[in-house]
Design a protein that fits this description.
Layout: H1 6-20, E1 32-41, H2 48-65, E2 69-72, E3 83-92, H3 95-112, E4 117-126
Antiparallel strand pairs: 1-3, 1-4, 2-3
């Protein structure tokens, strides 16, 4: 394959330069971030190993069902075998969209694992990014 003739290359480069020099206003849409801290009790847990297994299972199921980030908050429940805190976050175009998605995650946790007790959850939605 031979390279294109030189005049064609110059024309493409000129078009790219003109697009880059355009003075049209650029519109940015604000993004919203929702973060939830979900505190769960694992009543059948008698060791750290069983708590970790329950956490891994739940995190995997949440990630596969929803397009959110999930992490275990180790600082809040470091010494308790039956306590588990998850941090869930998502980003969206509207505050209602992100809040609704986090609410769905909380409902999913209650529905999919009835053996776990949902003790508390806090949701915070931040916007204007």
């Amino acid at each position: 394959m031979h390279p294109a003739p030189l005049p064609a290359r110059r024309a493409v480069a000129r078009r790219v330069r003109l697009c880059m020099l355009s003075t049209a206003p650029v519109r940015f849409h604000s993004m919203h971030v929702a973060v939830a801290h979900i505190t769960i009790r694992v009543p059948e847990s008698r060791s750290l190993k069983t708590r970790r297994q329950a956490a891994r299972s739940l995190i995997q199921r949440i990630r596969s069902r929803f397009n959110v980030s999930v992490a275990q908050d180790a600082g809040a429940d470091g010494n308790l075998w039956q306590s588990l805190t998850l941090a869930v976050s998502c980003v969206g175009a509207s505050a209602d969209q992100t809040r609704s998605l986090i609410d769905d995650v909380v409902a999913f946790v209650e529905e999919v694992r009835p053996d776990l007790e949902l003790l508390d959850y806090q949701i915070e939605v931040m916007g204007g990014f």
